[in-house]
Amino acid sequence: MGLLEVKNVNKRFGGLQALGDVNLSVAENTVHAIIGPNGAGKSTLLNCLVGKLIPDTGSVMFDGQSVLGRKPHEINQMGISRVFQTPEIFGDLTVLENVMIPCFARRDGAFKLHAFETVMNEAEIVDMAEAMLTDVRMIEKRDVHAGSLSRGDKRRLEMAMCLVQQPKLLLLDEPTAGMARADTNNTIDLLKEIKASRPITMAIIEHDMHVVFSLAERITVLAQGTPLVEDTPENIKGHPKVQEAYLGQSHE
Amino acid sequence: MLGLNRKDSLLFVVVICLTMFAPFLLNPFPEGSELAQFNAGYPDLMQRFVIFGIFAIGFNILFGLTGYLSFGHAAFLGVGSYAGVWMMKLLTMNVIPAILISVVVAGLFSVLVGYISLRRSGIYFSILTLAFAQMSFSLAYSVLTPITNGETGLQLSLNDPRILGVSEVDGSIPPANLFGLSMRDSTELAMGNWLFTFNVGYYLSAVVMLIAFYVAIRIFRSPFGMMLRAVKSNQQRLNYTGLNTKPYTLAAFVISGMYAGLAGGLMVAMDPLAGAERMQWTASGEVVLMTILGGAGTLIGPILGAGFIKYFENIFSKINESILHQWFAFLPDGLEDALVFMVYPFIGKGWHLTLGIMFMLVVIFLPGGLVEGGQRLGRLFRRRRKTDTKPGAGATEPAE
């Protein structure tokens, strides 16, 4: 039984079958990549996992509980954090404040009215956030407005915001999309570091095969909304069906 | 001081001084001089400054922090006023129960309005709040006449029960008071040609405003305030960070509704009547103008904006054609008439035009409002001083 179990998930958008009978099992403490050509349903699948979309049929179980019908913040409280394709951070806030917010979410749950305390007096939260920023080597930028960071730093900050919650499962939606090769390699290193330093499960959606083969321990290939194969990276590389899907040859 | 950091304490002290010495500061011109008409240090106007200051501070907690633009905040002020007058009719002329009930009733009403309106964001939220406010306004005018006394407005009368107080004193309605201290009482101080008025009602309102301002600073610096800024910045990220944004926005909405109620209650305490026009959309629009003009999202901005607009409304509108002729009397006749003709549309009843132009200029050139203007001036001075001789003498900057 994996940490995340997706069973027979179907999702239709009008006449388009975005997901058809998707089965997926992500084992604990592994890096699981989901790859596939454009329009294969990778993002739709991810949105079903975090509560943005609700599948038409099927079940999504996380840690023994169903996530279906729960709101995004509830799913996050269960232990799933998500990194977006374009970094989603609080641009008007400082870097430190950006990381403090998930710390509050982790300590206090979905809502707590601290209207008369002072942010900087919350020593425990400040310490937690600063430790995290040190981990991702951004501590010297703690008072910078997050909106003025470079793209790579924004990505780094977003990961810090997710990691400081100590999620059981980290979902990454094309973490290197639109990045230069150097930034991509930095991100790969960062993810490897993260994986090595703590027990964490990651599910990565990615286009870039270089990233996938550097990180993944299991790979699921999606094509036209259905999983084609699921195997180790070595086996996937030479798999005829995968090459077929990517090269766009017809099945018939 | 009081759990504030140095910068905020300084700002708070500055605001305390400004409000406490307002009767002096707003009366810079001697009685009888030509400029005396620019004096704003009379009780009625000073009360309005601080009361609308409270209204704008509260509005800024919602709009400045979360970015939710409510176009119906006057409804809470109006509801608070009605509740306050009823308290004075039924219970006592002491202002404390009236003010408290105003805050409570406005708070409850804002829970209802907020719960429904906050289902949408952006322009739809604004429209929903506007709809609620106009609904309240129309109801107060027509259907709810037994409670609101319709067009005439709710007033006190000699045969009100006032079970904890007295219905009448020597054949007239007793004055609103704070444990016997009448709100209308004033002490006058004549110094040379100057006449300063210290009014009980003003000082009560000023103290309440200072408390309201202090609470607002604490909210701005609290984790709750940080969450509200995060809502404005990126609501989607906040949701995916495990925080439920709805209770946060609703709390901000209700707090700002209670501030509006407080302002309504104080209005009643100063002048015990309430009319439906307080809830009209122009009144809601006015507080939006105040906040943006002063600087949305800053601490001091709304107070500045409120003072600015109320000053214009009351002082500029008083200037009439004959005063203009007096001013330009030194010019040759033809030129005098031409100049008066040109200036006239901007004063008197035309003060809205002046205000509108100033508002446009501020929004275009100072998107951060008057506070940003102050900050720019401060920076300019500091740079000049640095290049001159003494670095680090540091002009203090109360802004933000």
Automatic annotation (TrEMBL), chain A:
<dbReference type="InterPro" id="IPR003593">
    <property type="entry name" value="AAA+_ATPase"/>
</dbReference>
<dbReference type="GO" id="GO:0015808">
    <property type="term" value="P:L-alanine transport"/>
</dbReference>
<dbReference type="GO" id="GO:0005304">
    <property type="term" value="F:L-valine transmembrane transporter activity"/>
</dbReference>
<keyword id="KW-0067">ATP-binding</keyword>
<dbReference type="GO" id="GO:0015188">
    <property type="term" value="F:L-isoleucine transmembrane transporter activity"/>
</dbReference>
<dbReference type="GO" id="GO:0005524">
    <property type="term" value="F:ATP binding"/>
</dbReference>
<dbReference type="GO" id="GO:0042941">
    <property type="term" value="P:D-alanine transmembrane transport"/>
</dbReference>
<dbReference type="InterPro" id="IPR051120">
    <property type="entry name" value="ABC_AA/LPS_Transport"/>
</dbReference>
<dbReference type="Pfam" id="PF00005">
    <property type="entry name" value="ABC_tran"/>
</dbReference>
<dbReference type="GO" id="GO:0005886">
    <property type="term" value="C:plasma membrane"/>
</dbReference>
<protein>
    <submittedName>
        <fullName>ABC transporter ATP-binding protein</fullName>
    </submittedName>
</protein>
<dbReference type="GO" id="GO:1903805">
    <property type="term" value="P:L-valine import across plasma membrane"/>
</dbReference>
<keyword id="KW-0547">Nucleotide-binding</keyword>
<dbReference type="InterPro" id="IPR027417">
    <property type="entry name" value="P-loop_NTPase"/>
</dbReference>
<dbReference type="GO" id="GO:0015192">
    <property type="term" value="F:L-phenylalanine transmembrane transporter activity"/>
</dbReference>
<dbReference type="GO" id="GO:0016887">
    <property type="term" value="F:ATP hydrolysis activity"/>
</dbReference>
<dbReference type="InterPro" id="IPR003439">
    <property type="entry name" value="ABC_transporter-like_ATP-bd"/>
</dbReference>
<dbReference type="GO" id="GO:1903806">
    <property type="term" value="P:L-isoleucine import across plasma membrane"/>
</dbReference>
<keyword id="KW-0813">Transport</keyword>
<feature type="domain" description="ABC transporter">
    <location>
        <begin position="4"/>
        <end position="249"/>
    </location>
</feature>
Automatic annotation (TrEMBL), chain B:
<keyword id="KW-1133">Transmembrane helix</keyword>
<feature type="transmembrane region" description="Helical">
    <location>
        <begin position="46"/>
        <end position="63"/>
    </location>
</feature>
<dbReference type="GO" id="GO:0005886">
    <property type="term" value="C:plasma membrane"/>
</dbReference>
<keyword id="KW-1003">Cell membrane</keyword>
<protein>
    <submittedName>
        <fullName>Branched-chain amino acid ABC transporter permease</fullName>
    </submittedName>
</protein>
<dbReference type="InterPro" id="IPR043428">
    <property type="entry name" value="LivM-like"/>
</dbReference>
<feature type="transmembrane region" description="Helical">
    <location>
        <begin position="288"/>
        <end position="312"/>
    </location>
</feature>
<keyword id="KW-0812">Transmembrane</keyword>
<dbReference type="Pfam" id="PF02653">
    <property type="entry name" value="BPD_transp_2"/>
</dbReference>
<dbReference type="GO" id="GO:0015658">
    <property type="term" value="F:branched-chain amino acid transmembrane transporter activity"/>
</dbReference>
<feature type="transmembrane region" description="Helical">
    <location>
        <begin position="123"/>
        <end position="144"/>
    </location>
</feature>
<feature type="transmembrane region" description="Helical">
    <location>
        <begin position="200"/>
        <end position="220"/>
    </location>
</feature>
<feature type="transmembrane region" description="Helical">
    <location>
        <begin position="353"/>
        <end position="374"/>
    </location>
</feature>
<feature type="transmembrane region" description="Helical">
    <location>
        <begin position="9"/>
        <end position="26"/>
    </location>
</feature>
<dbReference type="InterPro" id="IPR001851">
    <property type="entry name" value="ABC_transp_permease"/>
</dbReference>
<keyword id="KW-0472">Membrane</keyword>
<feature type="transmembrane region" description="Helical">
    <location>
        <begin position="247"/>
        <end position="268"/>
    </location>
</feature>
<feature type="transmembrane region" description="Helical">
    <location>
        <begin position="94"/>
        <end position="116"/>
    </location>
</feature>
